[in-house]
Amino acid sequence: MSSTSNKLKSTVKNESLGVLSLAALGVVYGDIGTSPLYVMKTVFDPAHGLVISDNNIIGIISLIFWAIMMVVTVKYITLILRADNHGEGGIMALLSLASSSILNRHHLHRILFMIGAFGAALFYGDGVITPAISVLSAVEGLEVATPLLQPYVLPITLIVLISLFLIQQRGTGGIGAMFGPITLIWFITLGFFGLMNIAAAPEILQAFNPLFAVSFCLDNGLLAFIAFGAVVLAVTGGEALYADMGHFGIKPIRLAWYGCVLPALILNYLGQGALLLTDPSAISNPFFLLFPSWALYPAVALTTAATVIASQAVISGVFSVTRQAIQLGFLPRM
Fold first, then answer.
1. What share of the chain is helix, strand, coil (3-state, %, to 5)?
2. Can you tell me the distance from the alpha carbon of 37 to that of 209, in angstroms, rounded to the nearest whole number?
3. Residue 138 in contact with residue 159, Cβ under 8 Å?
4. Helices and strands in the chain, H and E counts
5. What is the residue-level pLDDT of the chain in tens, covering all 334 positions?
6. Do residues 8 and 173 touch, judged by C-beta distance below 8 A?
7. Cβ–Cβ under 8 Å, residues 242 and 4
8. Does pTM surpass 0.70?
9. Contact status, residue 238 vs residue 6, Cβ threshold 8 Å
């Protein structure tokens, strides 16, 4: 293991569970935490042809809720986090674990290597795309508050991206210490304003019943299948949980999920659904319309910060995968 990793492990042992959970918020959950910005708007995009009706709104929220519960809570938090390789997670750690059980079966070893390499390549692609898209979306959000900045969107994006990668030399722990408190405020904001809107249309709570998700699928056929493509956006970033496990450990990641991220996400999606039940025209931007007019500009500023931070999850994950690939001999030393 590299000296950098050893120092990080030493730091992890000396930090309290609460501090590590706060740092994990800023590094691990930034990506999935910004999904509410665009999921509902994408689902009901006019190009998809899905009608904005009460049953469809409740059905979609139900699909999102159960996708988060099954994919993130059950798959990643409950099961996959157990498959650590001496505390490390990610596709390469999983590949190493699987390979150790078939040492004498070389043909299976080659197949496993191809699968692992393919999975790592997909994760690298995510690592390339996510920072660019996240930061660009954040800077474009500034146009809502200050339209005169539109000509400067790309230059500002480049400056932010370069700055983001320059601060990587401070290490994952240092970055988490900076981003964690901001991300905590972000999740509290998500939950609070989501809860405010639920009070206006409590019937959205029917989305907890999986029968509404099933009914939505049966009633909409092909349109429901297309909607799945947008619903999946609600769980993007879940893979960072496993990839970043070596940075913080299992307990801080799980505590941050159950204690903050999961309730905040669920409340916000329910709030957006409740808003659409009372005002279907809010589909133009259901996330920002959750906020009262006095909170809109602060919300844009906070969203900008949160979306920039979101790219850190995959950056840290790609670093972990690269380090593991070097240690396993799949990449040359860097």
1. 85, 0, 15
2. 24
3. no
4. 16, 0
5. 444 444 444 444 446 888 888 888 877 887 888 888 888 988 998 888 888 999 999 999 999 999 999 999 999 888 888 876 666 666 777 777 777 777 677 777 778 888 888 888 887 887 787 777 777 776 776 665 667 777 887 888 899 888 888 877 776 555 656 778 889 999 999 999 999 999 999 999 999 999 999 999 999 988 889 888 889 889 887 777 777 777 677 888 899 999 999 999 999 999 999 999 999 988 888 888 898 878 878 888 888 788 778 777 677 777 777 887 787 777 888 7
6. yes
7. no
8. yes
9. no
Burial code (b: 16+ CB inside 10 Å, e: under 16) for 291-323 equals beeeeeeebbebbbebbbbbbbbbbbbbbbbbb
Choose among 262, 207, 250: nearest CA to 29.
262
Comparing CA positions, the residue from 309, 290, 305 lying closest to residue 40 is: 290
Structure tokens that stand for 87 in this block: 């505390």
CA distance 97 to 103: 11
Domain boundaries, the chain: 3-327
